[in-house]
Amino acid sequence: MSALLPRPQRLSDTVARQLESLIRDEGMAPGARLPTEKVLCERLGVSRAVVREAVSRLKAEGSVETRQGLGAFVAASPGQGSFRLVRGGKASLAEVEEIFEIRCVVEAGAAELAARRRSAADLSRLAAALSRMDRALDGAPDGAQADDAFHVAIAAATGNTQLERFLAFVGRQFSETRAPTWDAGGLRSGRAAEAQAEHRRIFSAIEAGDAEAARAAARAHLVAAARRLGLTGLAAAFP
User: Fold this and answer.
1) 79-116 burial, b if ≥16 CB within 10 A, otherwise e?
2) Type and span of the H or E element at 145
3) Which segments constitute the HTH gntR-type domain (predicted)?
4) Cβ(109)–Cβ(215) under 8 Å?
5) Which of 5-19, 52-66, 115-129, 143-157 has the lowest mean pLDDT?
6) Whole-structure pTM over 0.90, yes or no?
7) Dihedral (CA of 121, 127, 133, 135) sign
8) To 10 degrees, what angle do helices 120-137 and 191-208 make?
9) Topology of domain 11-74, per CATH?
């Protein structure tokens, strides 16, 4: 299973990590100015476009700040602008196990709360995501995106806007763990069909307002999803 999550490393990701190392290794204090684009291009052997994309990534993460006409500077509180589950490159098996543990804690609790608070509109949104996944079972290309939408819709059904924002924010990273379910291999092997059956059990519990069953169904889904990817630790952690 070493090929799990085959996310290719983009050049801008590599440069962003190199810039982080530069800031750290050279002891650049908050407010210090980074070298100019021209200097960075020469030093790292990449184009201006790559440098700009790397700086934009670090800006989004809160590591650097940019000032119009002046360049990029080390942020006042580096690294506190955002949070990423995996810092560049392909996730290791240990990191994937940890991501699934986070999902189990967050998504099982969200399903429980959604069952207590869901509205008719929430149920319609969940049903729409289920329908998209049904179509994906028949060959439509957006199964992983519909899977993402289903889980974010559960968070929305809790009525807790911060929880919905959190799951939407990390949804792209969670999506990396969902992609193998909906790719060609997942469809052929039956992984996608199994996952969809589990989604329907979660939906049924939320629709019925059964909070305990919703939590159990969400947890069972995540344990099964981890098992389908060859990860066995979650079953022990959440028996």
Assistant:
1) eeeeeebbebebbeeeebbebbbebbebbbbbbbbbbe
2) helix 143-157
3) 9-77
4) yes
5) 5-19
6) no
7) negative
8) 170
9) Arc Repressor Mutant, subunit A (1.10.10)
